[in-house]
Amino acid sequence: MFIGKSDEISRRAFLQRTGHLAVAGSASAYALGLAGIGEAAAFSSAGGYKALVCVFLYGGNDYANTLIPYDNLNYGRYSTIRGGTSGIALSQSSLANTVLVQPQSQVLTDDIRYAIAPTMPRLKARFDEGKMAPLLNVGPLIVPLTRAEYNSSNNVSFPKPPKLFSHNDQQSTWQSSAPEGSVTGWGGRMGDLALSSNTNSMFTAINATGNAVFLSGRNALPYQVQTSGAVTISGLGRRIYNSSAAQTALSSLLRAHNGHVLEMDYAQVMARSIEFGGFVNNALATTSLTTDFGPTTNRLATQMSVVARMIAARSALGVTRQVFLVSLGGFDHHDDLIGSHEALLGQVDFAMDAFYRATVELGVANQVTTFTASDFGRTLSSNGDGSDHGWGGHHFILGGAVQGGRFYGRAPSVSVTSDDQVGQGRLLPSTSVDQYSATLARWFGVADSELSSIAPNIGRFASPNLGFMG
C-alpha cells in the first residue's frame, strides 16, 4: 500500500475549495458567469491562459521500439536482445532519418544515441526545433529504489507501487498515484486548484476520451466531450412520440436520484450535459481553425481536434486554466509488435504534431503543453514476436514552453542484467511519475506549497523540477 494520503489533496486546500462545483452542478446556462468562486492563494493564474493535455497510450507502450539505440555499440546490444530483425528489432538503416541529436554537452549512459521510431518524423522535427523533449525511464515510484532495494523483503523501508505489471492497476497508478479504485487523479487534483481561476469552473477538466480517473478531483469533475463537440441527449431536443410531457418526464428521470452516491454522480454528470451542451456547442460554432487533423480513422487526431476547438473557444467558455485527456489504445503488444506498433506510433506522431500546429495557429503554442503517458513500459527481451509487461518507459513532452532538443532523466543501459532493470529488461524507473507531474504542475501555476497535493510522494525525491519546462 502507498505511504501517505495519495488520494487526497491537503486538508487545508480541500476545505478552502469545498463546494466549487456545487454551484456549477445546478447552474443554468444563464448563470454560467456566476460559477467561479474566488480563492487563489495556492494557485497562480498569472500569464494568461494555460492548458495541459495528457495523451494516454493504453496497453503499455513498448519503450525500446519508440526510442531506439542507434549508435553501433548500443544498437548491437538492442538487436541481439530483441532477436534481430527476424525478431522484434527495427533495422538500423530504417532509423537513419529519425536520429535525435542531443547537444554535445549532453552525454547519456554508455554514450548512447537514440533514434525515434521511423514513423514519428514529425516529432523528430519538433525535437530539432527545440519544442519536444523525451523523458527517459519514468514510471511510478513511492521512493527512489535501487535493484537491491527492489528485491528486498523490507517493504517498509523500500515500498514498491502495488500490483506492478497489471494493466488496470498501473493505468490508475500512473493517473492517480494509487491502484484501481482510486477516486482522484493528478489531473483532477490540478483542476481542484485551478477552479477558482475560471469563470465557468465546470470547463476546467475536459475528457475527450473514455472514463478515466486522471481528471477526477475532489471538486473538479471532468466535462465529457466527443469529437463533434458536447455530448448531448438527442431525445431532449424534441418531443418524444409527439409529446412534450414525455420529453419533460425523460429530463426528470435523467436528473433523478435517491441519495445513493453513484446515482448522485450520474445525475450530476447528466445534469451538466443537459444544461451546458448547447452552450458548449454554441461556443465551438464561433471558432475558426484551419489546421488539418487528417482522416477520422486516426482516433487520437479526432480527439485532439476537438480539444483544439475547445481551446479556441476558451474566452467564450470563460476559462484560463484547463486540463484535458485524450487517449489511444492497442499498445498491449504481446505479439505482432513489428508493423502494428509502428502504425500506432505514426498515429500519435501525426495527431500530436497536428495539435501543436493548431496551437500555433491559435497563438497559444507557448501556453499549451502536451505530454504522453502509458500503463507501463515493456520488456526489452522478446517473447517471440512481442514484448511483455514492464515498468519504466520513455515519454514525450511537446509545446512552445518545452525546453526541447535534449533528453531528460537518466538513459537506461541496453541490458537484461544491469541494475537499472528488474528482469528481462523491465526498466526500474530512475524518474518518478510524481516528478513528472510536479514539473508540469509548477508550469501550470501550482505553488510549491501545494505540489504534494498533486504528487503525494514528491517529498521523497531530490527535485520537484525536472527542468523540461521553461
Automatic annotation (TrEMBL):
- Taxonomic lineage of the native organism: Bacteria, Pseudomonadati, Pseudomonadota, Alphaproteobacteria, Sphingomonadales
From which domain of life does this come? Bacteria
Q: Which InterPro entries match?
A: DUF1501 (IPR010869), TAT_signal (IPR006311)
One Pfam family matching this protein: DUF1501
What protein is this chain from? Answer: Tat pathway signal protein
